[in-house]
Structures are given as C-alpha cells and as structure tokens.
Fold this protein.
Amino acid sequence: MAKKVAAKKAPVKTQKNKASVAEFIAAVDDDARRADAKAIDKMLRAVTGEKPAMWGPSIIGYGSYKYTNTMGEADWPKIGFSPRKGATVLYIVPGFLASEPLMKKLGKYKNGKSCLYINKLADVDQQVLRELATRSWAHMSEKYG
C-alpha cells in the first residue's frame, strides 16, 4: 500500500511588508484615484486608530488577524483597500456586506463576498462608507481581538 505524502502548501502571496504606504499612494497614476486613496486612508486611520501597512504590492491594510482555510493559516488585514485601475476595492468583513442594511444608502458600487468596488469616492455617501467601515472594524476586532 502506497504512503500518502502531504502536499506542500503554496505560500500566501499577499503578506504584510515594509513598503511605504505614502509612496504607494503617491505613485497612483490617476489624479482622482490618488485623491480618493488619500481620503480613504485618512478615513480608515480615523476609524481604526491604526497605522496602515502594505500587504503585497497593492493592498493597504489596517490591523491584522489570522484565518484558516484549506491552504492553512495566514494573516490578513482586518480592513483595507486597494486603488486599482478599474475601481478602488475595499476589503471588509467576509459576508458582511450582504446583510448590512446601510448598503441601500451607500450609492453606486459593486460588491463581492468581502469586497466593495467603488469607481470613485464621489459615487458613494462618504458618511455611510465611514459607518460601514466602523461597523466592519468593530466586528473584526470583537471576533479576532
């Protein structure tokens, strides 16, 4: 009978690193997207009380927590965002957006399981966005410390 060999797990690609958040934001090509990134960073610093860190080459994250999936255990920011070319992506509590009544008041957006896609900050109600971020942060902090 053949012995089972444990498969090697691929390392998590998106890891916290020492890259400069300020330099990353300054390097965003589009002026409007860069301004939005500065505003979102300011909002998330205020909501979380955390200094942001780069996660991988393009995610700005605040705080961290450990999660486990089929690939093993990894760290991920409690909340974060990435000013991508097509949209700014906010990383919020997995599954949180679908059940959140504030989503109806947010404005123009798309969402995935734990991602909120905003074309531009002017498309959404920024007070509602701040409240969503505050609730998400509180939930993650309560659940993961």
